[in-house]
Amino acid sequence: MTDATSALTPSECDALFDLRFAGVGHVVLAVSGGADSVAMLVLAAEWRERRKEGPELSVATVAHALRPEADGEVAAVARLCAERGLPHARLAGAIPPGAGVEARARDTRYAALLAHASEVGADAIATAHTRDDQAETVLMRLGAGSGPAGLAAMRPRAERGWIAHLRPLLESPKARLVASLQERRIGWAEDAMNADPAYLRARLRGARDVLEREGLTAARLGALAARMARVEDALEAAVDAAAAEHFVREEDGARLGPGWAGLADEIRLRLLARAIAAAGDGPIRLDRLERLFARIAAEPRGAATLAGAKAAWDSRGVRTTPAPPRRG
């Protein structure tokens, strides 16, 4: 059995990258300079050298200008790339001060990476999310009251427009990536924000020992995410089948026919979400959707607004249209 803190072996890396990078022509590796992304850069470059074939690899670092040492970290990534013959780009991604810096930095980072991928003709970006990151995401989604879609957390592959977002290390423990760098005597940068208790992810890392003693290990939380992803895929397939019979898209919204009322609750709920999305213009919070669903089930007729859409229902089904403007 492989030691959970040992370096990844070449055969393990070959299996990971063969699977996750299959079918793409050019992957932009997102490398910040931290241990996870530096390990992805080093291991992917070694894999590509062993294979002598596969996608073109290039590297990009988004500079957020949040810390004075960031310039040196970008330069260190550029040197690693030069040593391995990989092109490197520094991407601007300055974040003005204010609340919600984590979310704003993430959105800025992905926007910069996708724009760069489009400019260089890449069809995929890769980020170095690990099993530890996945576990933290599951806990964050639990705390936010997410349903199956949220608890599926991050996927190994997601589509962002026509560019694929790949996470080749999502099932790998961070400790094994650190060990892989230590084995090669390659350094990395430590971001003090990762240990700052002002941020939720840092607080969850600080509570890891307590969580693991209660059985909430990264491995089990990662397994939960994978199982919820299976559930989510099966549910969405069932919703697609039900939509073919009960969901009608209209010019300004959608209609759910009377047969919608006889479906299983989860299928009905998801079809209602699609009808709201067809007419609305805002994010649909699950708890508010569930309250609307309960009203429709309890009241023979009525109307309500949610996420920029108006839903009206009676014995003929549910009709959604854009919500009227609010009065001043």
From TrEMBL:
<keyword id="KW-0436">Ligase</keyword>
<comment type="similarity">
    <text>Belongs to the tRNA(Ile)-lysidine synthase family.</text>
</comment>
<dbReference type="Pfam" id="PF01171">
    <property type="entry name" value="ATP_bind_3"/>
</dbReference>
<dbReference type="InterPro" id="IPR014729">
    <property type="entry name" value="Rossmann-like_a/b/a_fold"/>
</dbReference>
<comment type="function">
    <text>Ligates lysine onto the cytidine present at position 34 of the AUA codon-specific tRNA(Ile) that contains the anticodon CAU, in an ATP-dependent manner. Cytidine is converted to lysidine, thus changing the amino acid specificity of the tRNA from methionine to isoleucine.</text>
</comment>
<keyword id="KW-0819">tRNA processing</keyword>
<protein>
    <recommendedName>
        <fullName>tRNA(Ile)-lysidine synthase</fullName>
        <ecNumber>6.3.4.19</ecNumber>
    </recommendedName>
</protein>
<feature type="domain" description="tRNA(Ile)-lysidine/2-thiocytidine synthase N-terminal">
    <location>
        <begin position="27"/>
        <end position="205"/>
    </location>
</feature>
<dbReference type="InterPro" id="IPR012795">
    <property type="entry name" value="tRNA_Ile_lys_synt_N"/>
</dbReference>
<dbReference type="GO" id="GO:0032267">
    <property type="term" value="F:tRNA(Ile)-lysidine synthase activity"/>
</dbReference>
<dbReference type="InterPro" id="IPR012094">
    <property type="entry name" value="tRNA_Ile_lys_synt"/>
</dbReference>
<dbReference type="InterPro" id="IPR011063">
    <property type="entry name" value="TilS/TtcA_N"/>
</dbReference>
<keyword id="KW-0547">Nucleotide-binding</keyword>
<feature type="binding site">
    <location>
        <begin position="32"/>
        <end position="37"/>
    </location>
    <ligand>
        <name>ATP</name>
    </ligand>
</feature>
<keyword id="KW-0067">ATP-binding</keyword>
<keyword id="KW-0963">Cytoplasm</keyword>
